[in-house]
Amino acid sequence: MTDGVTVDNRIAFGRPCIAGTGIATEIIAERFRAGDSIASLVWDYRVRQVQIEAALRYELLRRRPNGRRVRR
Fold first, then answer.
1. 5-62 — its CATH code?
2. pTM of the complete model
3. CA 61 – CA 48 distance, rounded (Å)
């Protein structure tokens, strides 16, 4: 698990989230891929830049080279 990301079945139905927030890493990655900057994500979610970067790093590591999702 990447630092700053947690998986807890009681939060967000067990989806990976930024630690202590309930913000799903997948949502952060989708918005980033859609063109949102890290700065805008920091502003919108009121978290630190390192937390956004951890979420993006987690999602990057979760994907295989062919773009298919890796099962947890």
1. 1.10.10
2. 0.82
3. 20
Separation between Cα atoms, residue 23 and residue 51, nearest integer Å: 10
The tens digit of pLDDT for each residue in 43-68 reads 999 999 999 999 999 999 887 665 56
φ, ψ for residue 53, nearest 5 deg = -60, -40
Task: Please state the domain extents for the chain.
Answer: 5-62
SS3 string, the chain, reads CCCCEECCCCCHHHCCEECCCCCEHHHHHHHHHCCCCHHHHHHHHCCCHHHHHHHHHHHHHHECCCCCECCC
Q: What is the pLDDT of residue 1?
A: 54
